[in-house]
Structure formats: structure tokens, C-alpha cells
């Protein structure tokens, strides 16, 4: 019989190309990638031996009968293993070894073992094939059992993919159905037309479908840097965590990327990312690198020694500027490390923990490292608990408004106050505003919180008109996320108008970081405030990037000096001169100057002598509840009446 091997040759070439691409791009050895590689290698071996057996059968030489019989035995064994390996590969996506009872695993092994035993005994009984004295290949009486076995496994795979469709997902189920249909057609055709060798071709097409739809390494690749993406990182981490296999993680944030994009352009920023990826690839032979987000890279180290070596090498690499396009660019990075990441609950917990560690690193112009430990893990779990509680607090309006009065150095009394949000957890107690405000900003709940507090402030002021006779108004902190959120400022202005209170009683504090971002949203917000008659105050002046140029561009009437500038003004003449001269310049320009964070009489006396208009700090009063504020600002008789009311 003349055999058509064209399909087999095409299939072999195709599978070798797939193997080359898979081995080049394959990252860590997960159970699914190992199973796919096994299926791929068995498929290639099946085609190679099919071609070899076809060649030997066509020669039909008696002196090569032993070789023909050995090759056919191996080919038949491979044809048993191929469908078994396909089922094993698909099973990695919907079940773990731990979820299968022992009896079930034994039952899965028995059929292929029995078939393999029968094939090995074929030399004696010729049930599947034999080689006669002339060297010719003769089919045995149970030859079709091979096709029935393959068909049975195709049926098992089809039923399993239907039963576990929810775990597999629509894409995988569709791919499995397509490959089963294709393989089934090829098996049926070859069982009828023995000269057309299509089974190997069907296996190759099956592998191709799996490669392009399910196990394609290019599917999880970052197009800019050529690194694997966050989804692939999740897959690797979940693989390790599920099996408690030791691994260690580093995150590397390119700190100056936003500044590079703003000043030098996104093309240079992209080049910085590409160069960072190339540098991180050189960190360690077994260390895998992923790009998580715009400026963050993630590394998985299999051993402690490689983890420590990677830390040191990254710090050395990024301690020097990058050379991009002939220019030297500062490239400090923030490095966060987690040892024994397999001990964490999940990959999502791991990613959240890395975010938390990154938030602990202050803005810096140099490469810094923070190592996760028991203390930071407790801090992260605390933050998670507050995050879960925050939604309940917003829905049930569990927040409180505290007020910190501001003292006038000229009038010798309190003339205004700042409204501050406070939150108490039922079991953990008071929650730091820095914690819950940061969480609210990240979860996009800060605008909702701001509106709730604005309404509460208006209700309080409306209920105590005598309080408004004592003070000029109230200052309200405005988060950068609130200021730049479309439509939110209009809602705040509408809330004030609906209360019937004069807009001039309110002043919003804008941090200096936002004041340097001259975006369209910022100017729209400023226009809404000024047209409504609401005052603007620059908060935390001196803590970051703001300068007199940024102050002049925006219509501020009040400047609040950051508390960090108070450090050592009573003992350091240079610190005192800086503060004094800054106050002098601002007052000469017509601004009202408020000193934040005053805690001692010595500080108060110095600031008063320098012409500071107002004092805010614990020396006079910490933030207090509404009832205590009334006691502090109103005459005792009025305060008593209000408390009784």
C-alpha cells in the first residue's frame, strides 16, 4: 500500500515551529505549561515514529522486521499516551491533584496502563499488528481498538469540558470543542482510509489551537517592553501559592517616569521603560521579570540567595543616571521586597501588599528599598480591614466632623476654624485620617465622603448662627482627587447654596502639589469657586513643589505654612530666617499667613513677632468635636444652651 505522508511532514514542520516559539517565550514552569509541553513533545514524537514506521513498512524488508516491530510498538504506545496527555493538560485548568480522591486518580491510570500492557504483549499474540516473514505489515484483529480508545478519550474530554465549563471559561471550552471536532474527523478518516495518514496532522492542529488560544505565551506579553504582563504574573504566583512552593518577589517602581513624560515627552519616557526592562532582565539567570503597570516592574526569584543578589544589583544599576538619546536622565527606583510570598493568601493579597509597601516610601530623588516584615504585614491587614469598613461607613454615614479653631495674633481670639473628617472603627478604635482618606482616594470614594461631610458642616453651621457671629468662616480640605473629579466641585457649590449660608463663609484648602498642576479641570474648579464667592487657601506651603510663581498664578487669599518649616526655628537661625523672610514676602504681597503645627509658647511668640496673621496648632486646641467647639468658642451660657439643645 502506498501511504500519503504529506500531512505528516507538514504537521511535523508546524509543530517544530511551535516548539521553538514556546521554548523561547515560556516563563516559569506551571502545571499547565508543563502539561502542554508534554503533550507537544508526545505529539512530535508520535509524528516522527509514524513517518519512520511508514518508511519501514513501505520498504518491507525481512531483515528490518525487528526494527519495524519495535518502531510500531513505540508508535502504538505514543498513540495511547497522546490522548491521555491531552486530558491531563485540560484537567490542569479545572482541577488540582488535591481535589481528586485517590480512587478516581487510580481509575484514570488503569485504562492506559492496560492498553500499554496489551501493546507490549503484541509481539506474542499479534492482537494489533504483526510483521510476516516477508517483512510486510499485517493488521491484527483488534487493530481498531486503538481508534476506539482514542475516541473514548475524546468523549471523556468533551464531557469534562461541559461539566467544568464554568471553571474553564468560554474561550477554553470553545477551543476544546474545536480541537476535538478536528481530531475526531481526522481519526475517523484514517480509520476508513488507511493510506491517508491524518491522525498526526489532527494532533498537530489540536496543539496549534491550544497554542494560539489557551497556552500562547505572546498573549501575556507587554507590547512595549517585551516582558510578560500582570496576568501572567498572577498565573505564576497562584501556581506557587497553591502548591506552597517557595518564591520571593521584588517590585521596582520607576519614580521619575511622570516627570520624564511631562518634561521630556512620552517617547523618552517609553525609552526609559524599555531600558529599565533590559536592565532588569540582567538581574539574575533564574529571576523572571514582568511589567505590572505604567511604571512598575515585578520580579520573581526562586531562592533567597538570588533574591538578595537581585536586590543589591538593582540598587547598583539604578544608582546611576540612564543614558537615553545622548542625554543623562536621573532614574531612581523604589524597591519593595517580600520574602516567602507563597505564605500569603493569594496573588491579589500579594499585589495589594506591594501597593501598601510602596505607599510607605516617601517621595524621593534616590533609589530606596523597603523590605516587607511582620510589622508591615500587620499594617497592611489593618489597612484592609479599614478598607472593608469604609463602604459601610459611607453607606451609614458613620463619619464625624471635628473642627480645629484658628487663633488671630492681632485680635487675640479665634477667628476661623478648619473642618476635619474623623472615623472610628467599632473594634479597632479611631482611624487615622491619613489611612482612610488615602483608601478613599484609591477606591474613588473620596468625592462621596467629601459631599457627606460638606452637608454635615452646612447643617451644623445652619443650626448655630451665633457661632457664625464669632468666626469669619470655615476652611475645608479638598483632596486632589476631589478637585480634579469632573462635576464634583459643582456639587459642593450647590450644597452650599442649598444650605442658604453665605458662600463667603467657606474657604477650600488646596494642597501645593495640586496647585502646580495647571490642568483644565483645576482651572474649571477655580472658576467655579471664585464666581460663587468661595475663598481659596493654599495648604502645606513649603512641603513640596510649590513656589511663589505657583502662588501668583492662582487666586489664593490665604497661605498656610507647612508645619515642617517650624522645625528648629527656636534654635536654628537659618531655619528662623527662612520662615521669617517667607512670611514677610507673602504678607507684602497681600496674603494672609497662617502658621500650622504650633505647639509651644516659644514658637507662638516668634511667629507673632514676625507678623504671622493666624496660628493653628495644639498649643491652642487640637481638633475637637462639635459640642466641645461650642464650649470653646461661645460664651458659657450660650454653649450650655446649645449642649442642652
Quick structural gist:
The protein contains 27 helices and 18 strands. With 645 residues, the chain is an alpha/beta fold. The longest helix has 29 residues, at 31-59.
Tell me about this structure:
- With 645 residues, this protein is an alpha/beta fold.
- It folds into three domains: 6-217, Up-down Bundle (Rhopdopsin 7-helix transmembrane proteins); 221-372, Alpha-Beta Plaits (2-Layer Sandwich); 399-420 and 470-644, EAL domain (TIM Barrel, Alpha-Beta Barrel), CATH 3.20.20.450.
- The protein contains 27 helices and 18 strands.
- It has an eight-stranded mixed barrel with strand order 10-11-13-14-15-16-17-18, surrounded by five helices.
- Helix 1 (6-25) packs parallel to helix 9 (199-213) and helix 17 (446-463) runs parallel beside helix 20 (488-499).
- The longest helix is centred in the first third of the chain and has 29 residues, at 31-59.
- Residues 639-645 have low confidence and may be disordered.
- Report, as a whole number of angstroms, the end-to-end distance: 107 Å
The largest β sheet comes out as: 8 strands, mixed, barrel
- How many domains? 3
Please mark out the parts with pLDDT under 50 across 5 or more consecutive residues, or reply none: 639-645
Q: Helical proportion?
A: 55-70%
Coarse structural class:
alpha/beta
What's the CATH superfamily of the largest domain, by name? Rhodopsin 7-helix transmembrane proteins
Question: What is the fold-level CATH name, i.e. the topology of the largest domain?
Answer: Rhopdopsin 7-helix transmembrane proteins
Name of the top-level CATH class of the largest domain: Mainly Alpha
Strand content: 5-15%
Strand line-up across the major sheet: 10-11-13-14-15-16-17-18
What is the strand tally? 18
Overall mean pLDDT score?
A: 86
- SS field, number of helical segments: 27
Q: What CATH architecture label of the largest domain applies?
A: Up-down Bundle
